[in-house]
Design brief:
Layout lengths: L15 H11 L3 E2 L2 E2 L1 H9 L13 H16 L3 H14 L4 H27 L4 E6 L5 E6 L2
Antiparallel strand pairs: 1-2, 3-4
Amino acid sequence: MPRKKDTITLSIPPGTKEQLEAIARRLNILWGKDPSISGLIVAIAQHAVEVGKPFTLDSNQVNALRQAIKALNDAGRIGESQTILTLLLERGNLDASIRQSLLKQASKLLQAWRSQIDEYRQKQQPFYLFYENSQGEELQYTVRY
């Protein structure tokens, strides 16, 4: 039994077919070894891919976001700082050196707070611990020895 498919005919300016094929190839949407314009259109319709200008940041914007990350981290708002870091790394269209620097910074965020807590524990110094559980409830603990 043959599958039913909808068909459409597109009237496009010269060169557009090649541009669509290039986009499909870049997104690895292929029919065999060839780029698939039909597959690209389906992916767009299903919101599986995003089209448009890539999200890019200039050096001033990256520096401003880095300062925001540091300020959030210093204020103990690690979750928010990691959200910004993740956004930058996933969507920032960054050059390799900035990406590497941000990856290092991401790994240091947790290490810095863990080191601070370990230091408090070794000195048996009391401290406050703020925690948000999976239900979104914010909990506050006082740790004493």
